[in-house]
Amino acid sequence: MHQNFNKYSDSTSFQEYKVGEETYKNVICSFGTENKKRIIIGAHYDVCGDQQGADDNATGVTALLELARMLKGQKLNYRIDLVAYTLEEPPYFRTENMGSYIHAKYLKDNNIDVYGMASVEMIGYFKDEKNSQDYPLGILSWIYGNKGNYITLVRKIGAENFVKNFIEGFKDSNQVKAKIFSAPKFVTGIDYSDHLNYWKFGYSAMMITDTSFFRNKNYHQTTDRLETLDLKRMTKVIDGIFLSLIHLE
Protein backbone atom coordinates (compact mmCIF):
# COMPACT_ATOMS: atom_id res chain seq x y z
CA MET A 1 0.00 0.00 0.00
CA HIS A 2 2.83 2.41 0.86
CA GLN A 3 4.29 1.79 -2.58
CA ASN A 4 0.99 2.51 -4.33
CA PHE A 5 0.33 5.63 -2.25
CA ASN A 6 3.81 6.88 -3.04
CA LYS A 7 3.03 7.00 -6.76
CA TYR A 8 0.52 9.78 -6.27
CA SER A 9 0.85 11.62 -2.95
CA ASP A 10 2.74 14.69 -1.78
CA SER A 11 4.09 12.56 1.07
CA THR A 12 3.69 9.00 2.33
CA SER A 13 4.61 7.64 5.74
CA PHE A 14 4.12 4.85 8.26
CA GLN A 15 2.80 5.49 11.74
CA GLU A 16 4.32 2.66 13.77
CA TYR A 17 3.33 1.54 17.25
CA LYS A 18 3.74 -1.52 19.42
CA VAL A 19 1.22 -3.87 20.97
CA GLY A 20 3.13 -6.21 23.21
CA GLU A 21 6.15 -7.38 21.24
CA GLU A 22 4.55 -6.80 17.83
CA THR A 23 4.93 -3.66 15.69
CA TYR A 24 1.92 -2.46 13.71
CA LYS A 25 1.63 0.29 11.11
CA ASN A 26 -0.88 2.78 9.86
CA VAL A 27 -0.11 3.95 6.32
CA ILE A 28 -0.69 7.63 5.58
CA CYS A 29 -0.52 9.60 2.36
CA SER A 30 -1.19 13.31 2.05
CA PHE A 31 -2.37 15.76 -0.59
CA GLY A 32 -2.57 19.54 -0.48
CA THR A 33 0.13 19.70 2.16
CA GLU A 34 0.40 23.47 1.68
CA ASN A 35 -2.93 23.77 3.56
CA LYS A 36 -3.01 23.84 7.35
CA LYS A 37 -6.49 22.49 8.06
CA ARG A 38 -6.86 18.83 7.16
CA ILE A 39 -9.46 16.20 6.37
CA ILE A 40 -8.93 12.54 7.25
CA ILE A 41 -10.36 9.82 5.02
CA GLY A 42 -9.69 6.46 6.65
CA ALA A 43 -10.29 2.76 6.15
CA HIS A 44 -8.99 -0.29 7.99
CA TYR A 45 -6.93 -2.85 6.11
CA ASP A 46 -7.04 -5.72 8.59
CA VAL A 47 -9.47 -8.63 8.22
CA CYS A 48 -11.40 -10.58 10.84
CA GLY A 49 -10.02 -14.11 10.91
CA ASP A 50 -8.86 -16.25 8.02
CA GLN A 51 -11.01 -14.97 5.16
CA GLN A 52 -10.82 -12.67 2.17
CA GLY A 53 -12.76 -9.78 3.67
CA ALA A 54 -13.83 -8.50 0.25
CA ASP A 55 -16.43 -6.07 1.57
CA ASP A 56 -14.93 -5.80 5.06
CA ASN A 57 -12.76 -4.02 4.31
CA ALA A 58 -11.03 -4.47 0.97
CA THR A 59 -13.66 -2.10 -0.43
CA GLY A 60 -12.53 0.66 1.93
CA VAL A 61 -8.88 0.07 1.06
CA THR A 62 -9.76 0.16 -2.64
CA ALA A 63 -11.43 3.51 -2.06
CA LEU A 64 -8.24 4.91 -0.50
CA LEU A 65 -6.08 3.66 -3.37
CA GLU A 66 -8.43 5.03 -6.00
CA LEU A 67 -8.81 8.36 -4.19
CA ALA A 68 -5.02 8.67 -4.14
CA ARG A 69 -4.94 8.31 -7.91
CA MET A 70 -7.80 10.80 -8.37
CA LEU A 71 -6.43 13.42 -5.97
CA LYS A 72 -3.02 13.64 -7.61
CA GLY A 73 -2.58 17.12 -9.09
CA GLN A 74 -5.86 18.50 -7.75
CA LYS A 75 -6.03 22.01 -6.33
CA LEU A 76 -7.42 21.48 -2.83
CA ASN A 77 -8.83 23.79 -0.18
CA TYR A 78 -7.72 21.45 2.59
CA ARG A 79 -4.93 19.04 3.26
CA ILE A 80 -6.32 15.54 2.75
CA ASP A 81 -4.75 12.61 4.58
CA LEU A 82 -5.72 9.14 3.40
CA VAL A 83 -5.07 6.78 6.30
CA ALA A 84 -5.09 2.97 6.15
CA TYR A 85 -5.53 1.66 9.70
CA THR A 86 -4.47 -1.57 11.30
CA LEU A 87 -6.15 -3.42 14.19
CA GLU A 88 -9.75 -2.33 13.69
CA GLU A 89 -11.09 -5.86 13.96
CA PRO A 90 -11.57 -7.95 17.13
CA PRO A 91 -9.97 -8.47 19.57
CA TYR A 92 -8.75 -4.88 19.27
CA PHE A 93 -12.03 -3.14 18.43
CA ARG A 94 -12.95 -0.50 21.03
CA THR A 95 -9.46 -0.61 22.54
CA GLU A 96 -6.63 1.90 22.53
CA ASN A 97 -4.69 -0.49 20.28
CA MET A 98 -6.82 0.38 17.26
CA GLY A 99 -4.80 2.12 14.58
CA SER A 100 -7.42 4.82 14.34
CA TYR A 101 -7.17 5.49 18.08
CA ILE A 102 -3.41 5.89 17.73
CA HIS A 103 -3.89 8.28 14.81
CA ALA A 104 -6.67 10.36 16.38
CA LYS A 105 -4.71 10.69 19.63
CA TYR A 106 -1.65 11.82 17.68
CA LEU A 107 -3.68 14.56 16.03
CA LYS A 108 -5.09 15.72 19.36
CA ASP A 109 -1.78 15.56 21.23
CA ASN A 110 -0.10 17.67 18.55
CA ASN A 111 -2.92 20.23 18.25
CA ILE A 112 -3.30 19.54 14.52
CA ASP A 113 -6.07 21.52 12.88
CA VAL A 114 -8.59 18.91 11.70
CA TYR A 115 -11.75 19.88 9.81
CA GLY A 116 -13.20 16.39 9.99
CA MET A 117 -12.94 12.67 9.29
CA ALA A 118 -14.85 10.09 7.24
CA SER A 119 -14.48 6.35 7.71
CA VAL A 120 -14.98 4.22 4.59
CA GLU A 121 -16.34 0.97 5.98
CA MET A 122 -17.79 -1.66 3.61
CA ILE A 123 -19.08 0.07 0.46
CA GLY A 124 -19.50 -2.78 -2.02
CA TYR A 125 -22.63 -4.76 -1.18
CA PHE A 126 -25.97 -3.75 -2.72
CA LYS A 127 -29.23 -5.61 -3.21
CA ASP A 128 -32.40 -4.51 -5.02
CA GLU A 129 -34.62 -7.30 -3.69
CA LYS A 130 -37.33 -6.62 -1.11
CA ASN A 131 -36.40 -7.38 2.51
CA SER A 132 -32.67 -7.28 1.72
CA GLN A 133 -32.07 -4.54 4.31
CA ASP A 134 -32.31 -4.90 8.10
CA TYR A 135 -32.05 -2.23 10.79
CA PRO A 136 -31.15 -1.98 14.47
CA LEU A 137 -34.77 -0.94 15.06
CA GLY A 138 -37.48 -2.55 12.93
CA ILE A 139 -39.47 0.66 12.63
CA LEU A 140 -36.64 2.18 10.57
CA SER A 141 -37.67 0.09 7.57
CA TRP A 142 -40.73 2.31 7.31
CA ILE A 143 -38.43 5.33 6.95
CA TYR A 144 -35.54 3.94 4.89
CA GLY A 145 -37.22 1.09 3.00
CA ASN A 146 -36.47 -2.63 2.98
CA LYS A 147 -34.15 -2.76 -0.03
CA GLY A 148 -30.37 -2.67 0.39
CA ASN A 149 -29.86 -0.55 -2.72
CA TYR A 150 -28.23 2.57 -1.25
CA ILE A 151 -25.11 3.77 0.49
CA THR A 152 -25.51 5.13 4.00
CA LEU A 153 -23.96 8.32 5.35
CA VAL A 154 -23.91 7.78 9.10
CA ARG A 155 -23.63 10.65 11.53
CA LYS A 156 -24.45 11.23 15.17
CA ILE A 157 -27.16 13.69 16.15
CA GLY A 158 -25.69 17.18 16.45
CA ALA A 159 -23.07 16.61 13.76
CA GLU A 160 -20.59 19.43 13.18
CA ASN A 161 -19.85 21.45 10.03
CA PHE A 162 -17.55 19.00 8.24
CA VAL A 163 -20.08 16.18 8.38
CA LYS A 164 -22.93 18.41 7.27
CA ASN A 165 -20.95 19.89 4.38
CA PHE A 166 -19.45 16.57 3.27
CA ILE A 167 -22.85 14.89 3.21
CA GLU A 168 -24.36 17.78 1.29
CA GLY A 169 -21.56 17.52 -1.29
CA PHE A 170 -21.93 13.74 -1.56
CA LYS A 171 -25.67 14.01 -2.11
CA ASP A 172 -25.22 16.83 -4.64
CA SER A 173 -22.75 14.71 -6.64
CA ASN A 174 -25.66 12.41 -7.48
CA GLN A 175 -23.39 9.45 -8.17
CA VAL A 176 -25.27 6.78 -6.25
CA LYS A 177 -28.44 6.49 -4.20
CA ALA A 178 -27.57 7.68 -0.70
CA LYS A 179 -29.45 7.99 2.57
CA ILE A 180 -28.48 9.85 5.72
CA PHE A 181 -28.73 8.02 9.03
CA SER A 182 -28.62 10.24 12.11
CA ALA A 183 -28.85 8.70 15.56
CA PRO A 184 -27.47 8.90 19.09
CA LYS A 185 -24.21 7.06 19.63
CA PHE A 186 -25.91 4.28 21.63
CA VAL A 187 -27.84 2.99 18.59
CA THR A 188 -26.35 -0.35 17.48
CA GLY A 189 -23.95 -0.02 14.57
CA ILE A 190 -23.61 3.75 14.43
CA ASP A 191 -20.07 3.66 15.84
CA TYR A 192 -18.92 0.32 14.40
CA SER A 193 -15.83 1.62 12.66
CA ASP A 194 -12.79 3.83 12.99
CA HIS A 195 -14.71 7.11 13.20
CA LEU A 196 -15.59 6.25 16.80
CA ASN A 197 -12.05 7.16 17.88
CA TYR A 198 -12.28 10.61 16.31
CA TRP A 199 -15.53 11.18 18.18
CA LYS A 200 -13.64 10.30 21.37
CA PHE A 201 -11.21 13.15 20.73
CA GLY A 202 -13.91 15.65 19.79
CA TYR A 203 -13.53 15.66 16.01
CA SER A 204 -16.32 15.95 13.47
CA ALA A 205 -16.53 12.42 12.04
CA MET A 206 -18.86 10.12 10.12
CA MET A 207 -19.05 6.75 8.39
CA ILE A 208 -19.77 5.80 4.77
CA THR A 209 -21.14 2.26 4.66
CA ASP A 210 -23.41 -0.28 3.01
CA THR A 211 -24.63 -0.94 6.59
CA SER A 212 -22.45 -4.00 7.16
CA PHE A 213 -24.24 -6.99 8.76
CA PHE A 214 -27.59 -5.23 8.54
CA ARG A 215 -27.40 -6.03 4.83
CA ASN A 216 -24.40 -8.18 4.02
CA LYS A 217 -24.83 -11.55 5.70
CA ASN A 218 -21.32 -12.51 4.58
CA TYR A 219 -19.97 -10.19 7.28
CA HIS A 220 -17.02 -11.83 9.07
CA GLN A 221 -17.60 -15.04 7.11
CA THR A 222 -15.48 -16.88 4.55
CA THR A 223 -18.26 -16.07 2.06
CA ASP A 224 -17.25 -12.38 2.04
CA ARG A 225 -15.76 -12.71 -1.43
CA LEU A 226 -15.22 -10.49 -4.45
CA GLU A 227 -17.96 -12.13 -6.53
CA THR A 228 -20.61 -10.99 -4.02
CA LEU A 229 -19.88 -7.30 -4.59
CA ASP A 230 -21.46 -4.71 -6.87
CA LEU A 231 -18.32 -3.06 -8.23
CA LYS A 232 -20.21 -0.59 -10.41
CA ARG A 233 -22.05 0.96 -7.49
CA MET A 234 -18.95 0.77 -5.31
CA THR A 235 -17.10 2.84 -7.93
CA LYS A 236 -19.88 5.42 -7.83
CA VAL A 237 -19.50 5.68 -4.05
CA ILE A 238 -15.80 6.43 -4.50
CA ASP A 239 -16.63 9.04 -7.14
CA GLY A 240 -19.06 10.66 -4.70
CA ILE A 241 -16.40 10.85 -1.99
CA PHE A 242 -13.92 12.40 -4.42
CA LEU A 243 -16.36 15.01 -5.73
CA SER A 244 -17.41 15.96 -2.23
CA LEU A 245 -13.79 16.40 -1.14
CA ILE A 246 -12.68 18.59 -4.02
CA HIS A 247 -15.71 20.88 -3.73
CA LEU A 248 -15.55 21.43 0.02
CA GLU A 249 -15.04 25.09 0.90
From TrEMBL:
Alphabetized InterPro entries for the sequence: M28_fam, Peptidase_M28
> What are its GO biological-process terms?
proteolysis
One annotated GO molecular function is: metalloexopeptidase activity
Residues in Peptidase M28 domain copies:
26-240
Checking Pfam families in the record gives:
Peptidase_M28 (PF04389)
* Protein name (database record): Peptidase M28
The record lists the organism as Chryseobacterium glaciei
